[in-house]
Amino acid sequence: MLMVDSVDVVLLTKNSERVLAKCLDSLYRNVPVHRLIVIDGYSTDGTLAIVERYNLRYRNVEVIFDSGTRASARQKGILAVQTEWFMFLDSDVVLCRDWFKKILRSVDVDSQVGAVWGIEVWSTLKNLWLMKLFLAVTHKIFQVRGGTHDTLIRSSLVKDIQIPQELHVFEDAYIKNYIAKKGYRSVVCYNAFCIHFRPDYVWTFKGSLNLVTESLRLGNPHLVSKLILPYGLYTVYAVYQFFANRK
Q1: How many CB atoms neighbour CB 152 within 10 A?
Q2: What domain range is 214 assigned to?
Q3: In the chain, helix, strand, coil percent, each to 5?
Q4: Mean per-residue pLDDT for 199-213?
Q5: Same structural domain, 177 and 57
Q6: What pLDDT was estimated at residue 161?
Q7: Would 22 be classed as within a structural domain?
Q8: 0.70 surpassed by pTM
Q9: Which residues contact 245 (CB under 8 A, 6 or more apart)?
Q10: 20 within domain boundaries
Q11: Do residue 162 and residue 240 come from a single domain?
Q12: Do the domain assignments include residue 2?
C-alpha cells in the first residue's frame, strides 16, 4: 500500500458553524492531518471560534483569509500545501470511518491516479432505491466536472495551476481537467464517502431550483450541456424532499 504518513487538508469556510465541528471531528478521526489549512471568507458567525478550538487541541491549523471566489480560495489553499498529497474537504460534510485508508487503496490500484474523490451522499437519503439512483447520477456528474467535497490530490500535479479567478462554480472541473492534461486520472471511491449536510433552505422549492440554476448559469456552457439530465434529476429529488418535509 502507498505509504503516506500525513497530508495537508484545505478547507474552505464562510459562516460554516452549522456542521463544522462534526466535520472536523470526522477529519481528525479518519485522516492523518499534517496541517489543516482553512481558507475563510471573513466569517461573521462562530466559524473561527470553532477553528481556534481545534487549533488549541491539535496545534496544526493555519487560517488564510480570502474574499474572492471559490477559485481564488482553492488557489490559495493549493499554494499553501507542503505535503506530497493533500486533501480538499468541504465544511458541511462528515467523513465515513477509515476514509483515508479506503482512499489510499484506490491509489494503489493505478499509479496514474492523480486524484481520488470519496463519493458524496446527501444526509436526507434514506430509501435504498433513491440511494442507488443518486449514486449513479453523482458519478455521472463527477465524470463531467469532478468534485472537491472530500478529495485526495497528488500535490505535484497542481502546484503550477492557475485557476481562473472568476470560477465560483466549476473550479472543480478546471482542477480535474488540469490533472488529466498531466496524464493522470481522477477516480471515484465508493467505499470512502462523505455525508453531505446541505442547509435547510435547499429543501425549499425556491432553494432546490437555486441549487441547480446557479451551476447552470455560471458554469461552462459545454460542461453544462452534459449536466442538464443529471441536474434535472437532482431538482426532482430536491422538490420531492421539499414536499416530504411538509408532511
Answers
A1: 27
A2: 202-247
A3: 50, 25, 30
A4: 62
A5: yes
A6: 98
A7: yes
A8: yes
A9: 203
A10: yes
A11: no
A12: no
Q: Which residue matches cell numbers 435547499?
A: 202
Q: Which helix (H) or strand (E) holds 242?
A: helix 221-245
For every residue of 91-149, DSSP letters joined together read: TTEEEPTTHHHHHHHHHHH-TTEEEEEEEEEETT---HHHHHHHHHHHHHHHHHH---S
Q: Is 225 helix (H, G, I), strand (E, B) or coil?
A: helix
Task: Kindly state whether residues 127 and 245 are assigned to the same domain.
Answer: no
pLDDT at site 124: 81
Asked whether residue 140 falls in the same domain as residue 216, the answer is: no
For residue 196, what pLDDT is reported? 94
With CA atoms as reference, report the closest residue to 38 among 64, 57, 67, 58.
64
Higher per-residue confidence, 205 vs 11: 11
- Could you tell me the three cell numbers for 54? 481545534
Question: Among 198, 213, 236, which residue terminates a domain?
Answer: 198
d(CA 229, CA 231): 5
